[in-house]
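Q: Got a minute? One more chain.
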Amino acid sequence: MFFPSLAHAMGAAPGGDAGGNPITAFLPLILMFAIFYFLLIRPQQKKAKQHKEYLSALKRGDYILTGGGIYGRIMEVHGDKLTVEIAKDLNIEINRNYVSGPGDAAAAPAKAEPKAKTKDKE
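A: Always. Here it is, folded:
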């Protein structure tokens, strides 16, 4: 053999203890799970809890954004069914679970206001 020290290094452990401590074998897996829990799982659970609380606190007059991307204002609440005004005199009914978040009051239907007449000066 050209490398006798290499063959000797590949031999069995001198004490016959080839297994080692089983905890050290699982330590990298435990650390990876802890990292995934604190970086991915826990924040997602916290966000889901906040969204559930938001949905349960919806009331008449709140501006919302639906899951389909429609902005509107809640006109009536009947359990899980919401009547939402999306345009002047145009209401739709949606399930409470399809509200994705708070809407923008500027994107909600505007009240009918007469346009101010402007005089052009030339």
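A: The helical segments are 4-9, 22-56.
Q: Perfect, thanks.
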